[in-house]
Amino acid sequence: MPEGPLVRKFHHLVSPFVGQQVVKTGGSSKKLNPTSFQSLWLQDTQVHGKKLFLRFDPDEETVSLHNSPLSEPLRKGEQKDKARNHQEASDPSSRSPGGDSAVPSGDDGLQCMGGDTPAGGAERWLQVSFGLFGSIWVNEFSRAKKANKRGDWRDPIPRLVLHFSGSGFLAFYNCQMAWRFSSPVVSPTSDILSEKFHRGQALEALGRELPVCYTLLDQRYFSGLGNIIKNEALFRARIHPLSPGSLLGLPRLEALVDHVVAFSADWLQGKFQGTQQHTQIYQKEQCPAGHQVVKESLGPPGGFQRLTWWCPQCQPRLSADEPKQVQPS
Ligand SMILES: [Zn+2]
To answer: Which portions of the chain have biased composition (kind: Low complexity) (predicted)?
Structure first.
């Protein structure tokens, strides 16, 4: 297995592709169907120890057309994690002797690729572990260096090939790949479903001049918050998605965080009980009050644009001179 430094080099090779969309796929992997990467956006890459992590987000248009995100199954890894954490918290002696260090991952994860889940709309990571001769090649394929026993000069076959919108491609050789549905490094204080979720830190982030709909998807403060939760919490708090947080005032920001936490917790509970979470604004044409809903792709300049639904009447836009403490009637 390549040591950490080599994996860091792979990380360095992959980094320029962050922010690009997969436009063509190839490779021999049977565990991960290479075509399932089609249209995904590479959003981040991290290296931890000897493992490389690549975060992919689905294309918004594909999601709305082909999937009903709320019917997606809960990620098994997440469930396992929750159960384990709960178990450890309530009774440390019940821990299994060997410990359960398995990384949440598996083929089943691909079923979730299309949609947001309560704790991870934006958190789908491909975990790559390299074999002894594992490697990543950029814009070229590995070639045979010598003939095999039968005298054939056969080039190695990549497990996965990803062609990106910027016209380059990555080829992965001799590696094991699995999906995981939590960030490789999530602090519980930024995890919206954790009891340790730090509201103060979240409120401070929201209070900046940035539109609140950008900050909500910032995984540093709202780990696990995906596009559905963003839309629903903003609607329930009656806040226009592009409102600069600095104009909203603390009570309204607190209400927004309350809705984020409540909606996510309800959703997770519903997943365990097999019920579907009810949305009021996400992918709707009318709000519950019967107003026409507006849909637009919103995101930071040059960043990933996410489809956003809001009701211009229930979520009026703030003007800069509006007093901060105004509550909508
Ligand atoms: Zn409305």
So the answer is: 90-102
